[in-house]
Amino acid sequence: MELTVDRIEVSGVSVDVTSAGAGPPLLYLHGGFGLSGHASFLATLAKHFRVVAPGLPGFEHSELPREYNCVGDLAYFCLDLADQLGLRGATLAGACFGGWVTAEMTVRSTAGFKCLILIDALGVKFGDHLTRDITDIHAMSEADLEAALYAQPESYRRDTTVLTDDELTAIVRNREAFALFGWKPYMHNAGLARWLHRIDIPTLVLWGDRDGMVSGDYGRKYAAAIPNARFEIIENAGHYPGIEQAGVTAHRLVAFAADS
Fold this sequence. Notes:
There is one protein chain. With 260 residues, the protein is of the alpha/beta class. It is built from 8 helices and 8 strands; from the N terminus they run βββαβαβαβααβαβαα. An 8-stranded mixed sheet has the order 1-2-4-3-5-6-7-8, with helices on both faces. The two termini are 25 Å apart.
């Protein structure tokens, strides 16, 4: 299934949107390192859905408005995007940082969404002030970061010397935006946990069994905080099951959406 990229403007912000397929709508929000590596996952989903995957403001090559300074801004932006693109009744899915954005969206409003899938999502603080729920990836070497993100890091090691200028620019912008929106407090909204009960649509929480950034225990707590949410493990996957186990992750998502 061929993926296409179009430039659109939403609420005065110019962003790139990757799309494919012609089925019922699915809005997918990427993690903190962008959409790189997700082509197989999105193409598989596009066999069942009309997939819409925006580059979030500040990420990839999308515009970053000067006034955007918190994940709540991204949540409202994505709600506007869903309305503008006519994604009524969409399946909403987000991985990593994108999972945090989808959680912020759905505690505000679930109207218009059929179901929610969180994949190794960030955004919530469960432990006390002395407990680190989310690994500090900015303090890691590149090798340690790869080991934290992937079950098989050697398979996803990039040779930056062969990347194009556009690819290198996207990598730098993704890291800058990830830090901007998730630096303080680190990768969470201190108040989000107390509002997760407002998510009143069917919810599936998927988690890589070898995630070194946020543990499976964190994922189980995330699911427990959302009414009637289901928690499932993806084996042989780290923080990005959609990259390492694209087929399995897509199958779980498709099955859950069909039953919702």
